[in-house]
């Protein structure tokens, strides 16, 4: 990678951090009656729709296929956060029991917005 891809990769990593922060904020909102997982998922969709160019940047381009260290770390941090949401939802009975690595992907695929 170089130049433009490095820049796009860094911006995509910053966008992922913003997305995760919004999800965390929504999930931590104790005034809402819904579950933290549900609130975090809604925040994900809201951010994707409010910032479509950010979303495209995070999940498109050659730099995503072969990510830089900064983007890979951001993606790993995001995935760890989502895994924690799934595990907590399993603990409180919101999601079925089982390996969170197997339960999480179907949940993710249901609420991940599709863009053409």
Total count of domains = 1
The helix/strand order is HHHHHH
Distance between the termini: 26 Å
Rg over CA atoms, rounded to whole Å, is: 15 Å
User: Which word captures the global form?
Assistant: globular
Mean pLDDT: 82
Number of β-strand runs? 0
Low-confidence region ranges:
none
Instruction: Specify the number of helices.
Output: 6
Instruction: Please outline the major beta sheet.
Output: none
Question: What is the beta-strand fraction?
Answer: under 5%
Instruction: Give the proportion of residues in helices.
Output: over 70%
Structural class: mainly alpha
Q: What do these coordinates show?
A:
It is a single chain. The protein has helices at 4-27, 36-50, 52-59, 62-65, 69-91, 100-111. It is mainly α. The chain has one domain. Helix 2 crosses helix 3.
Helix and strand topology:
Blueprint: H1 4-27, H2 36-50, H3 52-59, H4 62-65, H5 69-91, H6 100-111
List keywords for this structure.
116 residues; 74% helix; Tet_transcr_reg_TetR-rel_C_sf; 6 helices
Summarize the structure.
The chain is mainly α and 116 residues long. The protein has helices spanning 4-27, 36-50, 52-59, 62-65, 69-91, 100-111.
């Amino acid at each position: 990678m170089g130049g433009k891809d490095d820049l796009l990769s860094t911006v995509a990593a910053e966008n992922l951090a913003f997305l995760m922060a919004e999800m965390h904020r929504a999930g931590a909102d104790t005034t809402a009656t819904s579950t933290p997982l549900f609130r975090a998922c809604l925040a994900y969709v809201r951010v994707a729709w409010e910032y479509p160019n950010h979303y495209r940047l995070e999940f498109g381009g050659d730099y995503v296929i072969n990510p830089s260290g900064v983007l890979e770390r951001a993606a790993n941090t995001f995935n760890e956060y989502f895994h924690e949401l799934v595990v907590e939802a399993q603990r409180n009975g919101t999601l079925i029991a089982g390996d969170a690595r197997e339960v999480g992907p179907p949940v993710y695929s249901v609420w991940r917005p599709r863009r053409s």
